[in-house]
Amino acid sequence: MAGEPVVLVVEDEPAQREVLAYNIRAEGFDVMTAAAGDEALVAVRETPPDVIVLDWMLPHVSGIEVCRQLKMGAETARIPIIMLSARSEETDKVRGLETGADDYVTKPYSVAELLARLRTQLRRVRPATVGERLEYEDILVDLAEHRVFRADVPLTLGPTEFRLLTALMERPGRVWSREQLLDRVWGRDIYVDSRTVDVHVGRLRKALRASDAGDPIRTVRGAGYALG
Length: 228
Ligand code: CA
Fold this sequence. Notes:
Blueprint lengths: L5 E5 L3 H13 L3 E5 L2 H10 L4 E5 L7 H10 L8 E5 L4 H9 L4 E4 L4 H15 L1 H4 L2 E4 L2 E4 L4 E4 L2 E3 L3 H12 L7 H9 L8 H14 L8 E4 L3 E4 L1
Parallel strand pairs: 1-2, 1-3, 3-4, 4-5
Antiparallel strand pairs: 6-7, 7-8, 8-9, 10-11
Helix pairs in contact: 2-3, 7-8, 7-9
The structure holds calcium ion.
């Protein structure tokens, strides 16, 4: 399941947690679950998810507190959080959003609506997983047709190079470590030597320069790679 977006579902009601996890998995996303606030904080630290669906009412550490802590953390602040709450009062919604939640859904909610909200958040952080195409300068990745163009010239890329380029193009300018690229492109469960990343970046560079254009991939010494 390389590169699937990871959604963390935090909900203490087992039945609700299972329904959510089931439906989110059915969308093709990877799901992690937590039944309590402190458990969620540990899970995020161990495996940062792409989006968090967070119930407000949780035992011990409340959803609001989890949200506040994650939004204050340098490493976790940018992970979108969708708050779930049985409270429908406007003041609660405002309070939820003030804590830094990116969206707020009132229970009872329709699963279809929640999935739509989830896709909206994923479009921000993982555009390649919900969009049709990615563009960076003269490079175009057509995700639906699995094709890559540079300055309108079609390029031939292997499947690994395609996924590598897609990851880089989701966030131009971001510096990726080899380990982060391994997780994103090869998957978290597969053991691959980090030098393999260098080999495939080399192949990707070669393919991208086939049309005599410049090298858009930057090697950041001691850190990894970035696009632009
Ligand atoms: Ca609850």
